[in-house]
Amino acid sequence: MCGIIAYLGEDSAAPILLEGLKRLEYRGYDSAGILTVNDESQFELKKDVGKVLEIHEKLNFLDLNGTAGIAHTRWATHGGVTQANAHPHLSNNGRIAVIHNGIIENYKELRSKLTSQGFVFSSETDTEVVPNLIEYWMRIKGLDLVEAVLNTFQSLEGNFAIVLIDRDSKTIIGAKNGSPLVLGVGSNGKNEYFLASDIPAFLDRTKDVVYLYDGDMVVLRCDSHSRSKKSSSYQIYNFRDGRKIVTRPVQSVSWDMEHAAKGEFDHFMLKEITEQVETIQKAGAQDRETIEDIARRIKEAKGVFLIGCGSSFHACLSVSYLFSKLAAFHINTVLASEFSAYEHFLKKDTLVIAVSQSGETIDILDAVRTAKQKGCQVISIVNVMGSSLTQMSDKTLFLNVGPEISVLSTKTYTAQLVVLTLLAYALAGNLDEGLQRVKYLWNIVYNLTAASTRARIRALADRLSKSEHIFVIGRGSLYATALEAALKIKEVSYIHAEAFAGGELKHGPISLIGKDTPCIVFVSKDTEKLILSNAMEVKSRGGYLIGIGPTPIESFDFFIKVPETGELNPVCDIIPIQILAYQLAVILGHDPDRPRNLAKSVTVR
Ligand code: M6R
Questions:
Q1: Model pTM?
Q2: How many whole angstroms from 514 Cα to the centroid of ligand 1?
Q3: Is 357 in the pocket of ligand 1 (CB under 6 A)?
Q4: Which residue puts its alpha carbon closest to atom 4 of ligand 1?
Q5: CATH number of the domain at 3-259, out of 3.90.550.10, 2.40.70.10, 3.60.20.10, 3.40.50.300?
Q6: Which residues contact 567 (CB under 8 A, 6 or more apart)?
Q7: Which of 80, 174, 353, 411 has the fewest CB atoms within 10 Å around its CB?
């Protein structure tokens, strides 16, 4: 839930680390810190509470000297948002500095063991045990750095990505265990290395990456042959597999900096919403044989579970209606965090389809681990290559939409819908029709994201920004769209938004409707009759109706036209609400890319 970046090379580390932190800030923004090792082998450290640029303005990170360093942006878990709890954390003897993402579950026990050995702690974090354990193994037990670090990692419980730097040798060591960590290798023979939670952090320097596996520990060494000529090298061990040295391939990523930069847009969220004109098409460009192979596996399985969290779950729920409608196929759609309740249904021939943008969400990794233990096949639908979920899956379909930087899922949500819809068509033996229909969306999405549509929605946002509550209704797959719409609005505008299946209103929620209560109504050809009668129930109690669909009706107070696209209605219908949510945030003075209390990938339970 935090962002990590480390650099070892020939250039000044601070500007590279600062740039990386800015790009990782979506992972947490409570506090941040940068530490470098200067030419005199001294640590230089600046850290504080606040967002990266605020801290930089106050402390000027660029004053830090040295060509090796580590940096961190924090989403607080253990210990409040204070300067003392900000990373990096140092060992008692000041030789080892550590940054960390994840949770060390046995930190209390480790901390009391270290305390009994005379160690003192200056923060409330679980992280601070790590540099001190390394010091313990080196100073008290006499081990060398690598042995000490291997011992330390083997004693930690929980999911973590950790990077540390040794002041005396400038060695940087990173380990991955259930939380993301990627190694970047300098391109065109450039003698530099990066370790980061996510590729965009160093994408302006190299596209050559090594995806690390759980248990991997990479050691980056700075070999100084002379004062002027330095070279670095790396070695990977696996601390879960007999401490063996392992080899992992260097792969080139297709993402480029344009994806990781805001360009002409004020925020990543708006950029990513407008990118959907292309990303929906990219998500649809799947390998036919792979889709058909997965459809075959679905057909042959005895029980299929479709699991996800947050927006990814909404994509699952939405498409479960299509599996039923197009292919007469029942699929169990379950929140990944609730999956353990279904464990006893899992058999060797059960298929689990795990949907996750990041591929790092702990709830989904836990669920998949359970499924694997029961011998089930796991297929994942993921955006981030090399993520933990892809490493645990038998097969992965990638969304291919480039990095999504804003905390809110927008382009990845519609991409998930597209990929899952193609699977439903393939299951019905009709993949060609699905592919054709996806192509047809280009023009519609272009119009929906155009400046003129955004301006119209801005007028609606002005009105809704004064509301305390917004309700959203839909039926069938558009009920899932309603859930997603409410999530988008509340997570970024902080206005209470709640979704209901249209038919449920009369069973209770209608008591919440009063004069001018806004209610967004998703209408499609096949749900029109019933959802409009639900809308009228709202209207007759004074509600303010916002219709989204192919045809306006008189009772709508505001209408956004979205052409009817049948099975693909959920893909198009959510786009105006993504825009609305964005504009509400801007009007209300919130940062759309970094909503309070949220982080892009949720690696805590
Ligand atoms: O990376 P994942 O798709 O597994 O993430 C799941 C949710 O955490 C995510 O969709 C979350 O709900 C977003 N904030 C939605 O905008």
A1: 0.84
A2: 32
A3: yes
A4: 356
A5: 3.60.20.10
A6: 322, 325, 326, 421, 424, 425, 434, 437
A7: 80
